[in-house]
Amino acid sequence: xxxxxxxxxxxxxxxxxxxxxxxxxxxxxxxxxxxxxxxxxxxxxxxxxxxxxxxxxxxxxxxxxxxxxxxxxxxxxxxxxxxxxxxxxxxxxxxxxxxxxxxxxxxxxxxxxxxxxxxxxxxxxxxxxxxxxxxxxxxxxxxxxxxxxxxxxxxxxxxxxxxxxxxxxxxxxxxxxxxxxxxxxxxxxxxxxxxxxxxxxxxxxxxxxxxxxxxxxxxxxxxxxxxxxxxxxxxxxxxxxxxxxxxxxxxxxxxxxxxx
Length: 260
Prior knowledge:
Shape: elongated
Number of strands: 17
Radius of gyration: 20 Å
Structural class: alpha+beta
Helix content: 10-25%
CATH superfamily of the largest domain: Probable inorganic polyphosphate/atp-NAD kinase, domain 2
CATH class of the largest domain: Mainly Beta
Number of helices: 5
Strand content: 35-45%
CATH architecture of the largest domain: Sandwich
Strand order of the largest sheet: 6-5-16-13-8-9
CATH topology of the largest domain: Tumour Suppressor Smad4
Distance between the termini: 33 Å
Number of domains: 2
C-alpha cells in the first residue's frame, strides 16, 4: 500500500540524542521541510531501535505512520539511512501494522499501573533470591510455582529482542501468537516457555513478594514491587511502520530464524 497520496506529505523528524542523528535531522529538515509530529502525515525517526520504540510510544494516540532510518546500532526496526530520494522511498514503502500489549500491574501497596508495551512485558527479580511466579492463561493455572529470574510475554515484533536473548522463539508477524518465555528458569527445570494465541490473557502472580521482590517492565517503563501482572493484547491500538520493499520487517524476522 502506498504511504503517500499524490501530494507531498508533511514530514516530522525525530532524532536520537547522538551528534550524528541530530546532524542528520537538521540536514533533512532543511532539505525536505518539517512540521511538528502532531501536524505530520509521516514521522521520520533517526536513530536506533530504542529511538523507534520511543517514537511509537509517543505516537500511540496520533497513530501516524513512522519511517525509521538507522543511525544507531542494531536497527532491526529501521531502514537504511540515506538522505537522497526520501520522498520516493516513502511513496514506495510498505506498511506493517503492529498491535502492542497492555500491562496491568498491581503493586504490593495496591496501586494499579496500565502501560502499553510494543516489544514485551517482563518480570525480573529485584533481589539475590530467585523469583517465584504462578502463571495462569485465560483463567487456568498452568504453572503453580515457577522458580526463575523472571518471565516475559513478547509480541512477534519484540520476539527478536529480549525474548530471543532469553532463548525464546522468533514469531513471524502474521503468526497470531505471543511468546511466553521464562528467564533462567530453575524449576520446572525443563520448561522452556509456551506459544499462546494472541488473544490470550496471561496472569503472572508473584509468590512471596516481600521476601522475593519482583519488578515489572513494559518496554522501558518499570514498576517496582509488583504483586500481580496481567498481560493482554491491546487490540484497540494499531501502530503503522513503513519499510523499504527490500527491507521488509517480515522478511527480516524470517531471516533471523536462520541466522548463524
